[in-house]
Amino acid sequence: MAEDLGFSKGLAGVVADATSVSQVQGEDGRLIYRGISIEELAEKSTYEECVYFSLYGKMPTKNQLTKFNTELRHNRVLPKAVEAVIAAAPRSAHPMAVLQAAVAAMGFDEQPVNLKNEDANIHNAIKIISQLATAVAHISRDRRGLSHIPPNTEMSHAENFLYMLHGKVPNKEEARIFDVALILHLDHDFNASTFSARVVASTEAKLSLSISAAIGALSGPLHGGANEKVLEMADGIGAPEHAKEWVLNAIATKAKVMGFGHRVYRTMDPRAKVLRGMLEKLVATKSDKSTYETLRIVHDTMIEELGKTSKDYIWPNVDFWSGSLYRLMDIDSIDFTPIFAVSRVAGWSSHIIEMWRDNRIYRPSAKYVGPTDAKYQDIKNRK
Question: Which residues contact 359 (CB under 8 A, 6 or more apart)?
């Protein structure tokens, strides 16, 4: 076992650096962005305000937020080179692979990193945050054989994304729900994609290339995409009336129930609580409630069978409810992880800019477990 060798497999519990961007308090089920609870931000803030807060480390004044919004809105149009990269990708390509290439292409005209010019680094981040949302919408519409919808500078970040994705102006309620979903996913301390971004950026690689690396990490099934798997589970169950029996069988056979459990949280994921509340409001306005009802029964049966205080109980995480929420907004499940990146790009950028203030290249040590006195054998003598 890794513990017997004197190292922590997967860096579990290893403190690699310091940050003030966000903190997951796993034992208490809390998530804070620069000290403010995620519940309070979800209730009172907007994604744009949270992005400003994350990048600059302070809440904006009214004038500062207006100026910030203007800059975000006027950077939405993709460079022609990025559009060309997206257009060159086959429609069969996974959108995360296309997005990684598109974000890397955003660096074609990006200047080399200047650690002393934080203002320039922040403005570069704003451009990438803005353009990444446009890229995700373009990639989705290309896959579906639809023409691109140009960005609208009169709309909020959430409204404009849904508009570019669907080709119609979203209603205010759904735009606000999506805005809150973006807030909930903005940052989550040193998760795999954030750590990947920091490792690459520590070499003083361009911001766009560091973000591209984070997207690569997010594309892995152990990091992004869990909400897509939750919907596959719900669809596999078939109908709400089959859900309880399905869960009982899963528990009996020790099968994995998607959307339950988390690497850090030891109680309810606070993001899941906020999402479920929004989902219940949205589902009340829709005729098709089957996916939500299936998941509700799965959730309730897990609690009934394992119990809130049982050592065997694992709590639902943010991914358990988010897929159902996005489905009610007519978003394809293959687009869920790219949408995760639409939100998380602000957190990735904030971590990089924070790190660059006192940068040192990441260079961990490895525990060597191979031979130490092997001899070279000439090729003609090898068997």
Answer: 115, 202, 204
Residues in Cβ contact with 17 at an 8 Å cutoff, skipping those fewer than 6 apart: 190, 198, 355
Query: Exposure pattern of 130-142 as b/e (b: 16+ CB <10 Å)?
Result: bbbbbbbbbbbbb
Beta strands in the chain (DSSP E): 22-25, 30-33, 36-37
Do residues 12 and 244 make contact, with C-beta atoms less than 8 angstroms apart? no
Question: Between 116 and 14, where is the model more confident?
Answer: 116
Q: What CA–CA distance (Å, rounded) separates 114 from 109?
A: 15
Q: Which of 157, 262, 299, 351 is catalytic?
A: 262
Reading the block at residue 359, the tokens are: 């940068």
Give the per-residue pLDDT at 15.
86
269 a catalytic residue = no
What are the DSSP calls for 123-164, one per residue?
Answer: HHHHHHHHHHHHHHHHHHHHHTT-------TTS-HHHHHHHH
User: What pLDDT digit, counting tens, does each position of 124-174 carry?
Assistant: 999 999 999 999 999 999 999 999 999 999 999 999 999 999 999 999 999
pTM for the full predicted model = 0.92
Residue of 179, 187, 189, 319 with catalytic role = 319
Handedness of CA 361, 367, 369, 373 (dihedral sign): positive
Cβ atoms of residues 233 and 375 within 8 Å: no
Evaluated on CA atoms 222, 137, 285, 38, the torsion sign reads positive
Specify whether 332 is catalytic. Answer: no
User: Torsion over CA of 189, 192, 196 and 198, rounded to 10 degrees?
Assistant: 10
- pLDDT tens for each residue of 291-340: 999 999 999 998 888 775 555 556 788 888 999 999 999 999 999 999 99
- Which entry of 94, 148, 223, 332 is annotated as an active-site residue? 223
Which of 19, 34, 24, 48 lies closest to 343 in space, CA to CA? 48
The b/e string for 52-64 (b: 16+ C-beta within 10 A; e otherwise) is bbbbbeeebeeee
Write down the mean pLDDT value for the chain: 93
Q: How many helices (H) and strands (E) does the chain have?
A: 16, 3
Q: Is 187 a catalytic residue?
A: no
